[in-house]
Amino acid sequence: MTVMTDIEHPAGAGPMTVRDLEGMPEDGRRYELIDGVLVVSPAPGFRHQKIAYRLFGVLDATCPEGLDVLGAPFAVHSGDRVELQPDVLVGRSEDFTEKDLPAPPVLAVEVLSPSTAIHDLNTKKAVYQRLGVPSYWVIDPAEPAITAFELDSDGCYEQVAKAAGAEPFDAVRPFPVRLVPDALLGRTGR
């Protein structure tokens, strides 16, 4: 279950900041910050991780010069009150620091889990949109399926593609790559 909380933060101290996250335990949970509110998610499961790592491999193998692909946990932050950790991200090489990405990635990907699906499809999607992340993909491991959103001319996400099962998804942004949702599960399909 994803929990939005600020219980670790002293009462009356105001919103949490990115600096406050440095004191979070290394316990496998994901600690993110949205507008000063701490969001804690459980460690991802087997199927989630398998899909995220396979996606990383496909993207990394086709990634052009000037961009880098990274997997969670790696912090994307904006200011001192927003820090997210997409499951997979693509960013401009020049924008990365040794410890984080203080600029919007060109692609953020979230792999849904039962405990994070609503959060990923709503809250995080809205924050990525607000940050100006041009492409946002959501992978549902249950089908499996990939849904791709891109910013329109008004800066709002619109769904540009959905592929499920053996149907290929031919992405154009942030670079050309073909993904087949079933293939992200690997040879065992689990």
TrEMBL record:
> Does the entry feature the keyword Nuclease, yes or no?
yes
What superkingdom heads the lineage?
Bacteria
SUPFAM superfamilies membership: Restriction endonuclease-like
The alphabetized UniProt keywords are:
Endonuclease, Hydrolase, Nuclease
Q: Where in the numbering of this chain does the Putative restriction endonuclease domain appear? A: 21-174
Q: Which terms in the Gene Ontology molecular function aspect does this entry carry?
A: endonuclease activity
Q: Which Pfam families match?
A: Uma2
Fetch the InterPro entries from UniProt: Nuclease_put_TT1808, Restrct_endonuc-II-like, Uma2
Q: Which residues form a coiled coil?
A: none
PANTHER family linked: SLL0198 PROTEIN-RELATED (PTHR34107), SLL1222 PROTEIN (PTHR34107:SF4)
> Which protein is depicted?
Uma2 family endonuclease
Q: Which organism is it from?
A: Amycolatopsis panacis
